[in-house]
Amino acid sequence: MAKKESNPTKSLKIPQFIIVSCKICAFISTKLVTKYAAKLFTTPIKHKIPKRELQMDSESEQITINVPAIDKNIVTYHYGKSDHKILLVHGWSGRGTQLFKIADELLKNGYATVSFDAPAHGKSKGKSTIMSEFIASILEIQKQFGPFEIAIGHSLGGMSVLNAIKDGLQTNKAIIIGSGDIVQDILDEFILKLELKQEISERLRNLFEEKYQVKMDDFSAYRAAQKVKIPVLVIHDNDDPEVSVKAGIHIHQQLENGTLYLTDGLGHRKILGNQNVIKKIINFIKTN
């Protein structure tokens, strides 16, 4: 009997005990619940590598490197042998092997891929991280293993790719899949899922800006997109429950040389293995 697939257009729910914990913290003090929300927001879930990713995991050369800008070690995956290299960047709570179906197709087309477990993800050590550490990791990987002809990012990885290009990543083209857009919208959505008052979202933003001495909106994808001149393929599902399709549409509107490809019924993760999506990616890469 075929295994029943979970609904790809259904949003992942936050466990009830976490929501209850948040409400207890909020009852005690606003400061306490803001700190607790910040901890939850910066702590990814480490998933066991699914069987479908084991081939890429076993056939990759895995090299641990240090990222001096953040003084953290990350595990990198080198898949295939070719001078034509493509960088793959996973999303929040993802892994360096998550884009394996795309990677397999790239290998068939004469490319090699380099991917990585971001800090606190997969086999990389640590318990918490933020997007600026994804960006720092990308820029260090470019120094050690680049140049890359193409950069492909999923979800937070898509936001990170655009920001990395803005900050100096050299690549001929980029592809972003299910990318988030406006940081404040992401914080608002997170607080909504925790069933907290929206004022906590602003407090959360202020806490991060004070702690990391950055303006959170500077990391919004649309802002980075305005400075990106290379061709960018934006892929998003109309029914994505995690990141609204309006994010992909808005990013595309800011790009000087963007192409928008919208799908239906694939959600946020199933889109990574869809054959039509992969075909679109290969065609975009091969088109001059």
From TrEMBL:
Which intervals hold domain AB hydrolase-1? Answer: 86-163
Give the GO molecular function terms.
hydrolase activity
The keyword Transferase appears for this protein: no
Q: Which InterPro entries does the entry link to?
A: AB_hydrolase, AB_hydrolase_1, AB_hydrolase_fold, Pept_S33_TAP-like_C
What are the protein's UniProt keywords? Hydrolase
Q: Which Pfam families match?
A: Abhydrolase_1, Abhydrolase_4
Asked if the Swiss-Prot or TrEMBL record annotates the protein with the keyword Cell division, the reply is no
Origin: domain of life: Bacteria
Q: Which SUPFAM superfamilies match?
A: alpha/beta-Hydrolases
Name it: Alpha/beta fold hydrolase
Source organism of the structure: Flavobacterium resistens
